[in-house]
Amino acid sequence: MAFAVASPASQQWLTQPATALSLIAGSAAAFVQTLKRLPRSVVHTTRRVLAVLTLCLAAVGFFSNSELAHTKWLTALCLSLLAAALFRIDARSPRLTERTALAVILLSALPLFTLAYGAASGGPSFAPHTMSLGAALSLGLLARATLSCRPDGDILQLWRHPSFAGRAFRWALPAAVVLPVLVSLLRQHLVRIGTIEPTAAAAWGTVINIGILSTVTLWGGTALRRNFAELQQSRKFLDAIIENIPHMVFVKDAERLSFVRFNKAGEQLLGLKRDQMLGKTDFDFFPPDEAKFFQDQDRKTLESRQLVVIAEEPIATASGERWLRTKKVPVLDPEGEAAFLLGISEDITEVRRSGLELRAAKDAAEANAKELESFSYSVSHDLRAPLRSIDGFSQALEEDLKPVLNDRTRQYLSRVRANAQHMAHLIDDLLRLSRVTRAALSRADVDLSSLAEEIRAELVATDPNRNVRWSIQPGLHSHADQGLLKVLLDNLLNNAWKFTSKKPQAHIEFGQTTDDHGNPCFFVRDDGAGFDMSYADKLFGAFQRLHAASEFEGTGVGLATVSRVALRHGGRIWAKAAQGQGATFFFTLS
Amino acid sequence: MKQKVILLVEDNPDDELLTLRAFEKNRLVNEVAVVRDGAEAISWLDACDGLPALVLLDLKLPKIDGLGVLKHIRSSARLKLLPVVVLTSSREDRDLVESYALGANSYVRKPVAYEEFLEAARTLGMYWLMLNEVPS
Question: Is A104 in a helix, a strand, or coil?
Answer without folding.
Answer: helix
